[in-house]
Task: structure prediction
Amino acid sequence: MDGKDIDLLIEILKHKGRGDLGNLLIGSKSEIDESRQFGSNWGAVISSFIIYSPIKNFYALRNLNEADNMVLLAGVLDLYPHEADAPEIVDVGFRILRDTDAADSNSSKPTGSKTGVDIFISYSTDDKEIAGEIKSALSAAGFTAFLAHEDIRPSSEWVDVIIDNLGSTDIFIPLVTESFFKSEWTAQEAGYALAKDKLIIPVAINGHNPAGFIGRFQSLRLDSSKPQEESSKIIETIAEQGQKHNFKYRLIDLLIERLQESPSYDSAGTRALHLTYIKDLDTDQVNKTFEAICENSQIYESRSASPYVKKLYGLHKDKISEKNLEKLKKKKPALFPNEVDTPF
Result:
């Protein structure tokens, strides 16, 4: 996501005598959202041009009449004409530009345009209590989880809010119960997430297995009587599978940050465990991890974290700086108080 296309689009609209439309785009960012459907030209993919607008202009853009929408689309098509091996843009969508989107838009790190990792929890209203428990656990782990019944104000246009959150989410988690299959909305949400190539992690509640298109994804089994406790399985799966997706770097940054902030011995063990699922940390990430380990006594004095620190060392020892190695050696008595055979 960046503002270069928007700058050109504003110039195009001014040239067409529609500076009023161009002014509504000031401060916006854009990206091209490709589907899995092939277009009319060789190698082309049906796509949407998504405009992320500051909230002061978002509602004006979203409520444009059909004629103005066509002018805007025509301007986009001047930028991206339909041709072979190119995105075949068929519509323009609007989303609210968040503060993190704007702050990160110039980042050179291949992490996308925002920080953190967003999760959309899809569920039947019959299961809103267990959905709330799972959201609570994921939020405690640092993720941003969306639940319709908690996060949409009564006055909001809730269909638009759901679509916006589905479009911007990184991970789609359907809570599969008997009620899930009776809701037409959950089926539509699942279809949208599948079409947008989101990471899909079905959670099978009390033995109910996913069906239809999401049936091909490996599901997690969860006991509804202890959702907070079993939500750790979801986080472990996110850590394992998320490194294959375009939010990998945001996920790693989040996991390192949460480890660094560990408030207790137990939380340090759990958070160190999550990082062991990431096999491909770069040098900077490795050293941030070990700086966190050496600086937070809740980590280096934690017996529950000790085996995972050892595993992290084994996975990434060639990338640890000399400075951090020296720090680790000083912490060795606290990290491995009863061990003779230590890794460093």
Observations:
- Residues 82 and 88 are 5 Å apart (CA to CA).
- DSSP finds 16 helices and nine strands in the chain.
